[in-house]
Amino acid sequence: MEELRQAMRGLRRGTLYESLVLLLVGILFLIYPESSGTIICYVVGAIVCLWGLIRVIVYFRADRLVAFGSFGLVQGAALLAVGIFVLVRPEVLAGVLTSVFGILLIIDGVLKMQHAISLARIRASGWWAVGLAAVVTAALGVVVLANPFKTAVTLMIFAGAALIVGSVLDLLTLAYVSRSVKAAKNAAEQLNSARERMKNAVDTDYRDADK
């Protein structure tokens, strides 16, 4: 039971952070459809550079024997190179940025469908709503990938709206899954408690009969 509680805590935290990030990206796409891609690329490049720099610093500050079997220097240098490239040529990443978010939406939809199946297995009443949210999220991702729009600005606006919808559905799904798991856990605890009381009552009857 403690493992389940820790797993749910980690799931809630990870989903919450991911949803907030995607929500901010979606709002950015809606407000600045022409320049948001470049802004995000600069942010990504800076983060990757910082990550690479940290890896290099950790490598040189590590114990010699520990550093001997580590690939931290190579990884850090590679991350720095990628980050600098993105900062110098942001248009390269910007060209595939919407496709990346489309794929993320599809993956998110698949994860929601897994939650719906899990809820159905524990007979939660609203599992179909989570399944519907999964279909909607995946469908939005497919549209973003297919890009049926005539201009890049229209695609960015649609992608922003899709990310916002997906993020809101994520938060609603997370809240419902958490509530359903908690209800199932409480029901299991009550059932175990009832079984224990019944067992104790039977044991008491046997002792009384022996007397």
Short description:
With 211 residues, the chain is mainly α. The protein is built from 7 helices and no strands.
Care to describe what's here?
With 211 residues, this protein is mostly helical. 90% of the residues lie in helices and 0% in strands. The chain has seven helices and no strands. Helix 6 runs antiparallel to helix 7. It is flat and about 70 Å long.
Keywords:
single chain, 211 residues, mainly alpha, 7 helices
Write the layout of secondary structure elements.
Layout: H1 2-31, H2 36-61, H3 64-68, H4 72-88, H5 90-121, H6 127-146, H7 152-210
Distance between the termini: 39 Å
Query: Beta-sheet strand percentage?
Result: under 5%
Q: Count of DSSP helices?
A: 7
Give a quick account of the main beta sheet: strands, pairing sense, barrel closure. Answer: none
Anisotropy-based shape: flat
